[in-house]
UniProtKB/TrEMBL annotation:
Pathway: Cofactor biosynthesis; adenosylcobalamin biosynthesis. InterPro entries: 4pyrrol_Mease (IPR000878), 4pyrrol_Methylase_sf (IPR035996), 4pyrrole_Mease_sub1 (IPR014777), 4pyrrole_Mease_sub2 (IPR014776), CbiE (IPR012818), Cbl_synth_CobL (IPR006365), Cbl_synth_MTase_CbiT (IPR014008), Cobalamin_biosynth_MTase (IPR050714). Residues 1-182 form the Tetrapyrrole methylase domain. Keywords: Cobalamin biosynthesis, Methyltransferase, S-adenosyl-L-methionine, Transferase. It comes from the Bacteria. Residues 256-325 form the Methyltransferase domain. PANTHER family: COBALT-PRECORRIN-6B C(15)-METHYLTRANSFERASE (DECARBOXYLATING), COBALT-PRECORRIN-7 C(5)-METHYLTRANSFERASE. This is Precorrin-6Y C5,15-methyltransferase. GO terms for molecular function: protein methyltransferase activity. One of its GO terms (biological process) is methylation.
């Protein structure tokens, strides 16, 4: 039997948790906090594979093993690895208080509406994009993905970072900092978790929840044009937007660019579906419209003022998906610049038949498989006398490229 004991973030440690064990495995601080049985072997966790091999030897001989871990070892912890290798029936799990729960408790907030993401030993971009897109995120940190790195990535976003270090220990600290302040410090190795909250101060508790996790996704998408402020009907029509969203596949943890955003309808819809979004728009009034539409729909969209493709070089993070709207002679160059950096897909909406070959060539030249469709729709329109006619909308070409060998490992589930 393997007894897995969670320690560190909540109640005082029972120093007798390892009583009767012949092998005790854990981090150095966990091992130092308990009373080890006389004659028991002690393994300080470093590389996991050798420790598991030793555990397997003891289990095969029927000798008792105790594994010490932080907080709840079944929550992004060692229980997953142990269950996969030895079987859940051989585990006696005794969870402690998760570091996420302890951190939220320290600042007096519930966490049933928080998204929890691990950046420990994982690509930190998923955590960064979740922090950009959602109002309440808890990040389990790791080397290269701590408060300083998160702060540097969130400098342009209005966020409050709550850095909880050494939870449950004598040196416990819970500090509220801006992203810039976080980026400027060396936080050491004692950080337990970082909470990322929308705004510059911790929000109130919010409404009573029924389902844990982030707010429920939208009940519908491809919203009517009337849902957005736009100029002279210069907006991606809902029928086109519906297919564009299907091809973009925006989801939490990913980054989408909306290049030539116009009203920002695509950007807003991607953000409503949980993605982090950067909208690029060259006109000052267009920038203000995108911002106004984002506010009206309660989503966070980073808006960059500038003309593509030149302005794209200043965007640090590569997107998972890109939507390119509008046209102009520079369109092939814009698509090429976007395709060079997109990790998964590029979707292009255009009205001019003459530019379709150049866009297809740009996508193919960047290693994308290219497909597309001409969308023509007719909407019901009332006529006098209580009758209805069909009113045709302008035809639009929608082209999309999917990278044959994706650069992304996907969102960690």
């Amino acid at each position: 039997m393997i007894t897995v004991v969670g320690m560190g973030a909540g109640a005082p440690v029972d120093t007798r948790v390892a009583a009767g064990a012949e092998l005790v495995v854990g981090g150095r601080r966990h091992l130092d906090a308990v009373r080890l049985p006389e004659g028991a072997e002690r393994i300080v966790l470093g590389p996991l594979a050798p420790a598991l091999d030793t555990v397997e030897t003891y289990v095969a001989e029927g000798r008792p093993v105790v594994v010490l871990a932080s907080g709840d070892p079944g929550f992004f912890g060692i229980v997953r690895v142990l269950a996969e290798r030895f079987g859940a029936e051989r585990l006696d799990v005794r969870p402690g208080v998760p570091s996420v729960a302890a951190a939220f408790a320290r600042i007096g907030l519930p966490w049933d509406d928080a998204v929890v993401v691990s950046a420990h030993g994982r690509d930190p971009r998923t955590a960064v994009n979740l922090c950009r897109a959602l109002p309440k995120v808890a990040v389990l940190t790791g080397p290269g993905a701590g408060p300083a790195e998160l702060g540097a990535a969130l400098r342009d976003h209005e966020r409050l970072l709550v850095v909880a270090s050494a939870l449950g220990c004598a040196g416990e600290r819970v500090e509220r900092v801006t992203p810039a302040e976080a980026a400027a410090r060396d936080w050491g190795t004692a950080v337990s978790v970082v909470l990322c909250l929308a705004g510059t101060r911790a929000p109130g508790p919010g409404p009573v929840r029924t389902v844990a996790g982030p707010p429920a996704g939208p009940a519908g998408w491809a919203l009517e044009e009337a849902e957005f402020t736009h100029r002279d009907s210069m907006i991606t029509k809902s029928e086109v937007r519906a297919l564009a969203l299907a091809r973009l596949g925006p989801r939490p943890g990913e980054l989408v660019w909306d290049v030539g955003a116009g009203s920002g309808s695509v950007a807003v819809e991607c953000a409503r579906l949980g993605a982090a979004v950067t909208a690029v728009e060259k006109t000052p009034d267009g920038v203000e419209r995108v911002r106004a539409n984002a506010v009206a729909h309660g989503v966070d969209v980073q808006v960059v003022h500038g003309a593509a493709p030149e302005v794209l070089a200043g965007l640090e993070d590569d997107p998972d998906a890109v939507f390119v709207g509008g046209g102009g002679r520079e369109l092939p160059a814009v698509v090429t610049a976007c395709a060079r950096r997109a990790r998964r897909t590029v979707v292009v909406a255009l009205a001019a038949l003459d530019r379709v070959p150049a866009v297809r060539e740009a996508l193919a030249g960047a290693g994308f498989g290219c497909d597309g469709v001409l969308l023509q729709s007719s909407r019901l329109a009332p006529l006098p006398g209580d009758v209805t006619r069909l009113a045709a909308t302008n035809p639009v070409f929608l082209l999309w490229g999917v990278r044959s060998h994706g650069r992304t490992e996907g969102v960690d589930q």
